[in-house]
Design a protein that fits this description.
The protein has 76 residues and is α+β, with helices and mostly antiparallel strands. 29% of the residues lie in helices and 34% in strands.
């Protein structure tokens, strides 16, 4: 089973606490096995072993208090 990666740009992430919050929320999305959030760039990289629903990812980001601005890769 291969690993896919998707990357998105998130608005509102400003610090390490923001990174942890997003990692926690996004880790709960079915299919996501890894999350790397970078407040400096505003980018979040998702590692997943199965397709994940874009709506589920965006909902998790919103639940954490942030907004998805764009997807820089589209592996979903």
């Amino acid at each position: 089973m291969g690993m896919d990666e998707s990357e998105l740009v998130v608005n509102g992430m400003t610090c390490a606490h923001c990174e942890r919050t997003l990692r926690t929320e996004l880790s709960e999305v079915p299919g996501v096995v890894g999350v790397d959030a970078d407040a400096t760039s505003g980018r979040v990289r998702l590692q997943h072993t199965s397709p994940v629903e874009r709506a589920a990812v965006e909902s998790a980001v919103t639940e954490a208090g942030y907004t998805v601005l764009s997807w820089t890769t589209d592996q979903l």
